Amino acid sequence: DIIRPIPFSPPPPDDDSDGDKEDITEDLQTLPVVDFDEKLHFAKHSRYRSEIANLLKVKGLSPNLIQLLGRTEDGRLVFPLARPAGIILVRKQDGMTLSAIKQCCVDLADALRILHSLDIVHRDLEGRNLLASLDWKTVILCDLESRWGTHKAPELRPFENKQPHETPYSKETD
Predict the structure, then answer these.
(1) pTM recorded for the entire structure
(2) Average of per-residue pLDDT across 96-112
C-alpha cells in the first residue's frame, strides 16, 4: 500500500477560551512530568477532569486510542506525535488503497469497542478527532473529554436546540 501525506493543512483547532473549564490541578499533579520534545510529542491543555480520567483508563489498551504520556512542567498533557487524519476516512486520494481505507475503519471501530467496554461514550466523533501514526498505518481516536458533542448524528437532530447535558448521547449515537 502507498499512503502519501495530505498536501494541505487541516484547519486550526477550536479556540479553548470558552470559559467552561474545570480545576484540574490535582489531576495533573498525579501525572509524571515528561521531558517534552516537539520532534517526538505534542502537548495540549486539558479543560476537564473527565478527559484525564478517560485517558488514564485507556492507557496501554489500544494503539487506536490516543496515549497519554504525562504532563509538561506548565501543565499541558503530553502525547506521542501524530498527524491529523480525518480526511483519509472521507476521501480516497493520493494512491491510498481501498484496503488501507478499510483498515482505517477497522481501527476506528476497535477504538470505539474499547471505549464502550469501559462505559466511555466519545460524544464527538468527527474528522478533527482522528489522528494517524507518523507512518500513516494506524488511525488514532483522540479528544476523550466525553463532554459535549456536535449534534451532527441524525438521531440527535430533535435535540439540536437543547443544552449539551440534555442530549441523550449513548454508545449507539457514537
Answers:
(1) 0.72
(2) 85
